[in-house]
From TrEMBL, chain A:
The keyword Cell division does not apply. The chain crosses the membrane at residues 12-31, 43-63, 83-103, 110-127, 133-153, 165-189, 209-234, 246-267, 279-298, 305-323, 329-353, 374-396, 408-429, 465-485. Its main location: membrane. InterPro entries: NADH-Q_OxRdtase_suN/2 (IPR010096), ND/Mrp_TM (IPR001750), Ndh2_N (IPR045693). NDH-1 can be composed of about 15 different subunits; different subcomplexes with different compositions have been identified which probably have different functions. It catalyses: a plastoquinone + NADPH + (n+1) H(+)(in) = a plastoquinol + NADP(+) + n H(+)(out); a plastoquinone + NADH + (n+1) H(+)(in) = a plastoquinol + NAD(+) + n H(+)(out). It is found in: Cellular thylakoid membrane; Endomembrane system; Membrane. This is NAD(P)H-quinone oxidoreductase subunit 2. GO terms for molecular function: NADH dehydrogenase (ubiquinone) activity; oxidoreductase activity, acting on NAD(P)H, quinone or similar compound as acceptor; quinone binding. It holds the Pfam family Proton_antipo_M. The gene is ndhB. NDH-1 shuttles electrons from an unknown electron donor, via FMN and iron-sulfur (Fe-S) centers, to quinones in the respiratory and/or the photosynthetic chain. The immediate electron acceptor for the enzyme in this species is believed to be plastoquinone. Couples the redox reaction to proton translocation, and thus conserves the redox energy in a proton gradient. Cyanobacterial NDH-1 also plays a role in inorganic carbon-concentration. Keywords: Membrane, NAD, NADP, Plastoquinone, Quinone, Thylakoid, Translocase, Transmembrane, Transmembrane helix, Transport.
UniProtKB/TrEMBL annotation, chain B:
NDH-1 shuttles electrons from an unknown electron donor, via FMN and iron-sulfur (Fe-S) centers, to quinones in the respiratory and/or the photosynthetic chain. The immediate electron acceptor for the enzyme in this species is believed to be plastoquinone. Couples the redox reaction to proton translocation, and thus conserves the redox energy in a proton gradient. Cyanobacterial NDH-1 also plays a role in inorganic carbon-concentration. NDH-1 can be composed of about 15 different subunits; different subcomplexes with different compositions have been identified which probably have different functions. It comes from Petrachloros mirabilis ULC683. One of its GO terms (cellular component) is NADH dehydrogenase complex. InterPro entries: NADH_UbQ_OxRdtase_chain4L/K (IPR001133), NUOK/Mnh_C1-like (IPR039428). GO terms for molecular function: oxidoreductase activity, acting on NAD(P)H, quinone or similar compound as acceptor; quinone binding. It is found in: Cellular thylakoid membrane; Membrane. It is an enzyme of class 7 (translocase). The lineage of its organism: Bacteria, Bacillati, Cyanobacteriota, Cyanophyceae, Synechococcales. It comes from the Bacteria. Belongs to the complex I subunit 4L family. Pfam families: Oxidored_q2. Its main location: membrane. This is NAD(P)H-quinone oxidoreductase subunit 4L. The gene is nuoK.
TrEMBL record, chain C:
This is NAD(P)H-quinone oxidoreductase subunit 5. The chain crosses the membrane at residues 6-29, 41-60, 91-110, 122-141, 147-166, 187-203, 215-239, 260-281, 293-311, 323-344, 350-370, 390-411, 431-451, 514-533, 563-586, 667-683. Its main location: membrane. It is a multi-pass membrane protein. One of its GO terms (molecular function) is NADH dehydrogenase (ubiquinone) activity. One of its GO terms (biological process) is ATP synthesis coupled electron transport. GO terms for cellular component: endomembrane system; membrane. Pfam families: Proton_antipo_C, Proton_antipo_M, Proton_antipo_N. Residues 75-125 form the NADH-Ubiquinone oxidoreductase (complex I) chain 5 N-terminal domain. Belongs to the complex I subunit 5 family. Residues 502-631 form the NADH:ubiquinone/plastoquinone oxidoreductase chloroplast chain 5 C-terminal domain. It is found in: Endomembrane system; Membrane. It comes from Petrachloros mirabilis ULC683. NCBIfam families: NDH_I_L, PRK06590.1, PRK07376.1.
C-alpha cells in the first residue's frame, strides 16, 4: 500500500473543521509565546473566534457531501456529527465572547485560556464523529483533561482549585469505569474496536451478563459527562467553583459532546441490549428531572441553581433519547441547539452581573430592573425560555421533546417532564420576580451601588455581541423553528443505526386514526397554497 | 494460563483501586488509586489482545494510548494538587469541602 | 404587480419595525430616546405612511380584479401536524388594510399635538405602532391560529394603552376590567377554535365551513355541537366588539388617551370582532341558529347602546355608547347575512367615528383652558356650549360626523345604515323595527351632543355648575364605574401654553385639526361607493362562496319604490330625532329635565346604563368574591393544603436532598460506584 493510496483511503478531508480549530490553537499558542502575554489579550480571542467561524463554515460546506467513514473507519462525518460538532463549536464561540472580559478582569493569561478551551473543543468535536474505541477514549480524555484545567484556571482561588480537584478525581474515576467497560466490550466482541464490527460480533455472542456489565460501565462514563443523576454530584460543586465562562462551556459544549457519545456508542454498539439501555436511561431521566429541578429550588447561588437546572434539562433531553424513535433523536438534538442559546445567554447575563457587582447570589439581583433594564430583560427572557414559557425558543424545544415522547407512548415520562418543568418554572420565575417586582427600597446593596453602564473596557463589546446574539436567538428561534427542525430531521434521517435502534423496538401503539385528539393532517394547506 | 486469570487479576486490581480512591485521605494517594484503575484496564486490554486479537493487536495499541492519557491526567492532577497545596497548605481530602450544598 | 404582493408582508412588519426600534431604544437608552421625541414620531409615522401607500396600491390592484393572493410558510410541523403562517390578500383584506392604515396614520399625526407635553410621548408612539402592526397582522391572517395570535396581541396593546397612565387608579382599573371581560370572550374563542380543529382538522376558514357542513349533513357531528362551537367562536367577537353582555368594558376604556379611543376603541380593534365574523362567514352561514343569535345580539346591543347614550353627559362616554350601538348594527348585519352591508358600515363608521372621537378630544383640549384639568369638568357637556364660535373647524367636522352617523343623505352613514336596515327588513321585520328605532335615538343623542357642545351660550364660566358637577363626582363611587376621566397630565399642553384660566376655549393646533378635516372627506363621500342603485362596494366585497356575477345580478334588481320607502322611513325617524334634540337642547322649547322627571324610571335606567355594571358587580364581582371566599375556605383547608403540601414537599426535599451534596469528592465517587453496581444488579 503506497502512501498516496493510503492518503486517499484516510479521507482526511472529513476532519477539516477540526483541522481549522487545531490550526487556530497552534497560532494562538505560538503567537502568545512569541509576541508576549500583554498583547495576546488583544488579538488571541479574535483569532480563536475567526478559527471557530471558519470551522463552522467548513462544517456547513460538508453538509451536502455524502457521508464517508474516514481514517479507516474511525471517524464518521455524517450529518448527525456535523450538527453536533457545530453545536460544540458554536458553544465555544459564545463562551469566548463572554470570557474575554472575565479572564481579563481576573488578571489571568487569556492566550492560555483560549488554547485550553480550543483543545477541549477539538476533543468534543472529534468525540461527535468517533466510531472506534481508541478514538472515543482519546477524544473524550482530550475534552476532559482540558476541562479540568479550565476549571482550575483561577489558580489563586481556592474554590477554583477545589472544584478542579473534585472534577479531576470524579472524572478520572468515571473515565476509568468507562474504559473498563470499553475493554470488556473489546474482549466480548473478540477483539473488535469499531462500533459496527462490535455490534455484529455481539449479535452472535452469548455472554449476556458480561455485555450488561460493559453496558452499565459505559453508561456510567457517559452519564458523568452529561451529569445525569446519580452521576451528577460533581456538577454543582464544579459549577460553583469554576470560572463562569468555563461553566457555560461545560453546561453546553461538554454536555452536547456527552450526548453525541451516547447516541453513537449506545445505538451503534448495543443494539443487542436496547431494552436494557433504554431502561437505564429512563431511570436516569426520571432521577435527573426530579432531583435536578427539585434541588434547584433550594439554591441561593445563581451558578449552583443553573447547575441543578442543567441537570434537570439533561433529564428532559434524555426523554428524546430513551424513546428511541427518529422524532425522539431529532427533538433531542433540536433541544440541544435551543439550549445552546438560552443557557449561554443566561450565563452571559450572569457574567455581566458578576463583572459589575462581583457576586452571583440570587438575592443580590433584587431590584435590578431599576438599574439595568437591558440585563434584566435578557436574563428574564433566557430564564423564561429555559422554563419553557411560550413563545420563547425553550417552549418549542420542550414541546417537540414531549410530543415525540407522547407519540412513542412514553406517557409517564412525558407527564413527569411536564410536572417537573412546572417546578422548574417556579425557580426561574423566582429570579425574574426578584429582578423585576421588587420596589426600589427593597433593592439589594450591590444593586443600589450598581456601577454606571459602560461598554468600553476591553472585552465588553464581545460580551455585548454575545448577549445580543443569544438573546435574539432565544427570542425568535422558537417562532422560526421550522428550518432548524428540518435541519435536525435531516441529520437524523440519514443515520442508519438510529433506524435500526428504532426497528429493534416494539412497534408503536399509537395510530393517528384511532386518536380523536390528534385528527388527520391538515389537507387544507396544499389547497390554500395553490391559490 | 487461561484468559480468566488475567481478567480476575484486572478485576481485583480495579476493586483495590476503587477502595483506595474512596478511602485515602491524601490526595496524592487518591491519584495513585486512579492510576491503579487505569492499569487494571490495561491488563484487561493486553490480555484480550493476546488471546483474541493476535493479528491486529488493537488492544495493545489501545493500551499505549491509555498509558499516555493516564500520564497526562496524572500531570494535570498533580499540578492541581500543587496549586491547592500552595493555597491551603494541605492535601488532606477531608479539608476540601469549601464547595457544598 | 406580483412584486407588490410578494412584499405585502411589509405592511404589518413596517410598523412593527418602528415599534421595535423605538422600544429597544427606550429599553437600552431610555433618556436619549425620550429626548428625541419628534424624531421617533417621524420615524414611526413615516413607516406607517409607507404601509399605507402599500395598502392603497394593493387595494387599487384588487379593485382592478387581481386574483386573491395567498402565501404561507410552514411554521411548525411535527409529523402529521402542520401549522402554516403567512398572509392572504383578498378584497376584504385590501379594504381593511386601507381603512386601518389611514385611520392609524391620521391618529398618529393627531397624537403629536395631543400628547405634545406628555412625558410618555415616545412610549405612546411605540405602543401605537405596535398596535397598528398587530391589527394589520390580524387583517392579513390566513387562518384561525394566526388570527388568534394577533387577536391576543391587539388585546394586549389595548390593555397597555387603556392603562397608559397606569399610576391612576381609574385607568388601571379600566384596563383590568377590559382585560377580564375580554378574557371571557377569548376563552370562548380559543375553545371554539380548538373545537373546530377537533371536528374538522383544519384552521382554514373555508375548509372548516365546508367540512362542518359535510359533518353535520352526514350526521357525524350533531347540529347541537356545531352550534355550540359556532357560539363559542362568536364569544370572541362579542367581547372584542363590545356586544351585549360583554359590552361593559368599552365605556371604561375611555380612560385611555383620546387618540386611543379613536383608533382602537372606535375605528379598528373593536371592528376586529366584525371582521372575524366576516372571515368566519363560511362557517356561520351554514348554522342558521348561530346566525340568528348573532343578529339578535347585534340588534339588542344597538338598542341598548343608543338608550344609554341618550343620557350621558360625558362627551367621550356618549361616543363610547354610540360606538357600542353602531357595532351592534354591524353584527346584526352579519347575522342577517348582509355581509357586504355590515362591512360597508364598518368602513364608514371607522372614518366618521374616528373623526368624532378626535373631535371630542379637540373639544376637551379646548375646554381645559377654561375649566382646568379636572376631567369631570372638561368632559362634561353641561359645561360646554357655544363652542362653535371658538372652535370652528372642530365644530364643522363634528357636525359632519353627526350627520353621517344619524343617517342623513348623502353622508356616509346613511347609505350603509340604510343597507343594513333594508337587509334586516328582508330577514325579519322585528329586527328592522329595533334598528329603525335605534336610528332615531342615534340621531337624537348625536344632535343632543352637538347642540349642547357647540350651540347656545358658553357655560364653562358658570362656577355653580362646576361646583355641582364636582359634588356629583365626589358623591359617586369613582373608580372603574366612574365617569370617563381624563388624566390631568394628558392635556398639560393647554395649561402650559395658556395658563388655565382663560375665559374662552380655543381652537386646537393644526396637527389636531388637519386629521379632522381629512377624515371629514370620507365621512361625507365614501358612502357614495355603496349607493343601492350603483353599488360599487357590493361588487367588491361579497360573501365568500358567492360569485361576482351573481352579486351584480342581485344588485341590479334595484327597486326604487322599495328604496324610497325604506330610506324615507329611516331618514324620517332621524329627522324626528334631530328635531326633538333641537327643541330640547337648541331652542330649549321643551324642557329636558321635565321629561326626565316624568319618565323617571326610564331615565334612571338609561343614566345608570341599564344597571349592567351594578348587576355585574353584584352577581359576578361580589358573587365571585363570595364564592371565592367560600372556595378559599375550602381551598385553604383542603386543596391549598394539598398544593402547599406538594410545594412544601418539593422545597423540603430540595432542602433535604441538597445535603447529599456534602462537598466530599470521595463520597461522590462512592455514589458513582454504588450506582454502577446497582444498575448492574437491576439490569441483570
Amino acid at each position: 500500500m503506497d502512501v498516496a493510496n493510503l492518503a486517499s483511503q484516510l479521507n482526511a478531508g472529513a476532519i477539516l473543521p477540526e483541522g481549522a480549530v487545531i490550526l487556530t490553537l497552534m497560532v494562538v499558542l505560538i503567537g502568545e509565546l512569541a509576541l508576549g502575554r500583554a498583547s495576546a489579550a488583544r488579538w488571541t480571542p479574535y483569532v480563536a473566534i475567526a478559527g471557530l467561524l471558519l470551522s463552522v463554515g467548513l462544517l456547513c460546506l460538508q453538509w451536502d457531501l455524502t457521508p464517508t467513514l474516514s481514517f479507516l473507519g474511525s471517524f464518521n462525518a455524517d450529518k448527525l456529527s456535523i450538527v453536533l460538532r457545530s453545536i460544540i463549536a458554536l458553544s465555544t464561540l459564545v463562551t469566548i465572547l463572554m470570557s474575554i472580559r472575565y479572564v481579563e478582569q481576573a488578571g489571568s493569561s487569556i492566550g492560555e485560556f483560549m488554547t485550553i478551551l480550543l483543545s477541549a473543543t477539538v476533543g468534543g468535536m472529534f468525540l461527535c464523529g468517533a466510531e472506534e474505541l481508541t478514538m472515543i477514549f482519546v477524544s473524550l480524555e482530550t475534552l476532559s483533561i482540558a476541562s479540568y484545567l479550565l476549571t482550575g484556571y483561577m489558580k489563586r482561588d481556592p474554590r477554583s482549585n477545589e472544584a478542579a480537584l473534585k472534577y479531576l478525581l470524579i472524572g478520572a474515576a468515571s473515565s476509568a469505569v468507562f474504559l473498563y467497560g470499553l475493554s470488556l466490550l473489546y474482549g466480548l466482541s473478540g477483539g473488535e474496536t469499531h462500533l459496527s464490527a462490535i455490534a455484529n460480533a455481539l449479535a452472535q455472542g452469548t455472554n449476556h451478563l458480561g455485555l450488561l456489565i460493559a453496558l452499565v460501565f459505559v453508561i456510567a462514563g457517559i452519564s458523568f459527562k452529561i451529569a445525569a443523576v446519580p452521576f451528577h454530584q460533581w456538577t454543582p460543586d464544579v459549577y460553583e467553583g469554576a470560572p463562569t465562562p468555563v461553566v457555560a462551556f461545560l453546561s453546553v459544549g461538554s454536555k452536547a459532546a456527552g450526548f453525541a457519545l451516547a447516541i453513537r456508542l449506545l445505538t451503534q454498539a448495543f443494539p443487542a441490549v436496547v431494552e436494557q439501555w433504554q431502561f437505564i436511561f429512563t431511570a436516569l431521566a426520571i432521577l435527573s428531572m426530579v432531583l435536578g429541578n427539585v434541588v434547584a429550588i433550594a439554591q441561593t447561588s445563581m451558578k449552583r441553581m443553573l447547575a441543578y437546572s442543567s441537570i434537570g434539562q439533561a433529564g428532559f433531553v434524555m426523554i428524546g433519547f430513551v424513546i428511541g424513535t427518529e422524532a425522539g433523536y431529532a427533538s433531542m438534538i433540536f433541544y440541544l441547539l435551543i439550549y445552546l442559546f438560552m443557557n449561554l445567554g443566561a450565563f452571559t447575563c450572569i457574567i455581566l452581573f458578576a463583572l459589575r457587582t462581583g457576586t452571583d447570589q440570587i438575592s443580590e439581583y433584587a431590584g435590578l430592573y431599576q438599574k439595568d433594564p437591558l440585563l434584566t430583560l435578557a436574563l428574564s427572557l433566557c430564564l423564561l425560555s429555559l422554563g419553557g414559557i411560550p413563545p420563547l425558543a425553550g417552549f418549542f424545544g420542550k414541546i417537540y421533546l414531549f410530543w415525540a415522547g407522547w407519540q412513542a407512548g412514553a406517557y409517564g415520562l412525558v407527564i413527569l417532564g411536564l410536572v417537573t418543568s412546572v417546578i422548574s418554572i417556579y425557580y426561574y420565575i423566582r429570579v425574574v420576580k426578584m429582578m423585576v417586582v421588587k420596589e426600589p427600597q427593597e433593592m439589594s446593596d450591590v444593586v443600589l451601588n450598581y456601577p454606571a453602564i459602560n461598554w468600553t473596557p476591553l472585552g465588553m463589546r464581545p460580551l455585548q455581541v454575545g448577549l445580543f446574539v443569544t438573546l435574539i436567538a432565544t427570542s425568535i428561534a422558537g417562532i422560526l423553528s421550522n428550518p432548524l427542525f428540518t435541519l435536525v430531521n435531516n441529520a437524523v434521517v440519514e443515520v442508519p443505526h438510529l433506524q435500526t435502534a428504532n426497528a429493534a423496538k416494539t412497534p408503536m401503539a399509537i395510530l393517528p386514526t384511532t386518536t380523536p385528539e390528534l385528527p388527520a393532517p391538515l389537507v387544507s394547506n396544499s389547497d390554500s397554497t395553490a391559490l | 494460563m487461561p484468559l480468566e486469570f488475567f481478567l480476575l487479576l484486572a478485576a481485583a486490581l480495579f476493586c483495590i483501586g476503587i477502595y483506595g480512591l474512596i478511602t485515602s485521605r491524601n490526595a496524592v494517594r487518591v491519584l495513585m488509586s486512579v492510576e491503579l484503575l487505569l492499569n487494571s484496564v490495561n491488563i484487561n486490554l493486553v490480555a484480550f489482545s493476546n488471546f483474541l486479537d493476535r493479528q491486529n493487536i488493537n488492544g495493545q495499541v489501545f493500551t499505549v494510548f491509555v498509558i499516555t492519557v493516564a500520564a497526562a491526567e496524572a500531570a494535570v492532577g498533580l499540578a492541581i494538587i500543587l496549586a491547592i497545596y500552595r493555597n491551603r497548605d494541605t492535601v488532606d481530602m477531608e479539608q476540601f469541602n469549601l464547595l457544598k450544598w | 404587480m406580483e412584486l407588490l404582493y410578494q412584499y405585502a408582508w411589509l405592511i404589518p412588519v413596517l410598523p412593527l419595525v418602528g415599534a421595535m426600534l423605538v422600544g429597544l431604544g427606550l429599553i437600552s437608552f431610555n433618556q436619549g430616546t425620550n429626548k428625541l421625541r419628534q424624531a421617533n414620531a417621524v420615524l414611526i409615522v413615516s413607516l406607517l405612511g409607507a404601509a399605507m401607500v402599500l395598502s392603497f396600491a394593493i387595494l387599487w390592484s384588487q379593485i382592478h380584479g387581481h386574483a386573491p393572493y395567498l402565501k404561507t410558510i410552514e411554521w411548525a410541523s411535527a409529523g402529521s401536524f402542520h401549522l402554516t403562517m403567512g398572509y392572504t390578500i383578498d378584497h376584504l383584506t385590501a379594504l381593511m388594510l386601507a381603512v386601518v392604515t389611514t385611520v392609524a396614520f391620521l391618529v398618529m399625526i393627531y397624537t403629536d399635538g395631543y400628547m405634545a407635553h406628555d412625558p410618555g410621548y415616545v412610549r405612546f408612539y411605540a405602543y401605537l405602532s405596535l398596535f397598528s402592526s398587530s391589527m394589520l397582522g390580524l387583517v392579513v391572517s390566513p387562518n384561525l391560529v394566526q388570527i388568534y395570535v394577533f387577536w391576543e396581541l391587539v388585546g394586549m396593546c389595548s390593555y397597555l394603552l387603556v392603562g397608559f397612565w397606569f399610576d391612576r387608579k381609574a385607568a388601571a382599573e379600566a384596563a383590568q376590567k377590559a382585560f377580564v371581560t375580554n378574557r371571557v370572550g377569548d376563552f370562548g374563542l380559543l375553545l371554539g377554535i380548538l373545537g373546530l380543529f377537533w371536528a374538522t382538522g383544519s384552521f382554514d376558514f373555508e375548509v372548516i365551513g365546508e367540512r362542518l357542513q359535510d359533518l353535520v349533513a352526514s350526521g357525524a357531528l350533531s347540529m347541537g355541537v356545531a352550534v355550540l362551537l359556532g357560539v363559542l367562536v362568536f364569544l370572541g367577537p362579542v367581547a372584542k366588539s363590545a356586544q351585549f353582555p360583554l359590552h361593559v368594558w368599552l365605556p371604561d376604556a375611555m380612560e385611555g388617551p383620546t387618540p386611543i379611543s379613536a383608533l382602537i376603541h372606535a375605528a379598528t380593534m373593536v371592528a376586529a370582532g366584525v371582521f372575524l365574523i366576516a372571515r368566519m362567514f363560511p362557517v356561520f352561514a351554514g348554522l342558521p341558529v348561530v346566525m340568528n343569535i348573532i343578529a339578535w345580539t347585534g340588534a339588542f346591543t344597538a338598542f341598548l347602546g343608543a338608550t344609554i347614550a341618550i343620557t350621558q353627559n360625558d362627551i367621550k362616554k356618549g361616543l363610547a355608547y354610540s360606538t357600542i350601538s353602531q357595532l351592534g348594527y354591524m353584527v346584526m348585519a352579519m347575522g342577517v347575512g348582509a355581509y357586504s352591508a355590515g362591512l360597508f358600515h364598518l368602513m364608514t363608521h371607522a372614518y366618521f367615528k374616528a373623526m368624532l372621537f378626535l373631535g371630542s378630544g379637540s373639544v376637551i383640549h379646548g375646554m381645559e383652558a377654561v375649566v382646568g384639568h379636572d376631567p369631570a369638568l372638561a368632559q362634561d357637556m353641561r359645561l360646554m356650549g357655544g363652542l362653535r364660535k371658538y372652535m370652528p373647524v372642530t365644530s364643522v367636522t363634528f357636525l359632519v360626523g353627526c350627520l353621517a352617523i344619524s343617517g342623513i343623505p348623502p353622508f356616509a352613514g346613511f347609505w350603509s345604515k340604510d343597507e343594513i336596515l333594508g337587509s334586516a327588513f328582508g330577514a325579519n321585520p322585528a329586527l328592522w323595527g329595533v334598528g329603525w328605532l335605534t336610528a332615531g335615538m342615534t340621531a337624537f343623542y348625536m344632535f343632543r351632543m352637538y347642540f349642547s357642545t357647540f350651540e347656545g351660550a358658553f357655560r364653562g364660566n358658570q362656577k355653580e355648575i362646576q361646583v355641582q358637577l364636582l359634588g356629583e363626582k365626589d358623591g359617586k363611587v369613582v373608580g372603574a364605574f366612574g365617569p370617563g376621566a381624563m388624566d390631568p397630565k394628558e392635556l398639560g399642553h393647554g395649561a402650559e401654553a395658556h395658563g388655565y384660566h382663560s375665559d374662552s376655549p380655543h381652537e386646537s393646533p393644526v396637527t389636531m385639526t388637519l386629521p379632522l378635516l381629512v377624515l371629514a372627506v370620507p365621512s361625507v363621500l365614501i358612502g357614495l361607493l355603496g349607493t343601492p342603485f350603483n353599488n360599487y362596494f357590493e361588487g367588491f366585497i361579497y360573501p365568500p362562496g358567492e360569485l361576482h356575477p351573481e352579486v351584480m345580478e342581485v344588485a341590479s334588481e334595484f327597486d326604487w319604490t322599495e328604496f324610497a320607502i325604506m330610506a324615507g322611513n329611516s331618514v324620517g325617524i332621524a329627522l324626528i330625532g334631530i328635531t326633538l334634540a333641537s327643541l330640547m337642547y337648541l331652542s330649549r322649547k321643551v324642557d329636558a329635565a321635565a321629561i326626565a322627571v316624568r319618565l323617571q324610571p326610564l331615565y334612571q335606567l338609561s343614566l345608570n346604563k341599564w344597571y349592567f355594571d351594578d348587576i355585574y358587580d353584584t352577581v359576578f364581582v361580589q358573587g365571585c368574591r363570595r364564592l371565592a371566599r367560600q372556595v378559599l375556605e375550602v381551598d385553604y383547608n383542603v386543596v391549598d393544603g394539598a398544593v402547599n403540601l406538594t410545594g412544601f414537599l418539593a422545597v423540603v426535599t430540595g432542602e433535604g436532598l441538597k445535603y447529599f451534596e456534602n462537598g466530599r469528592a470521595q463520597f461522590y465517587a462512592l455514589i458513582i460506584f454504588l450506582a454502577v453496581l446497582g444498575f448492574v444488579i437491576v439490569a441483570a
